[in-house]
Amino acid sequence: MKTLQIALSAAVLALSSGSAFASMDLAKAKNCTACHAVDKKLVGPAYKDVAAKYAADGNAVATLSAKVIKGGVGVWGQIPMPANPQVSQADAETLVKWIMTTK
Question: Is the pLDDT of residue 8 over 60?
């Protein structure tokens, strides 16, 4: 039984780690990293700052997913975030859920 628990724990850890790497790969594939980094401001805010700002917002995934696809301006200053209509709703939600874990 102990061996099974260890194996399951290892599998969960591997899957959760893989998910984080997969989401960074998705961010790179969708060119998000041209303007954003995990821990520092580039053109746009750091992912960890976005996660902190929206941590208490129960609608963060929906709000930010829409912003990924449609773009926006004003929340982080006057430099606009361009629209990314090539990003699917599912990919936008995956990215935002990952971003929200970067606090």
Answer: no
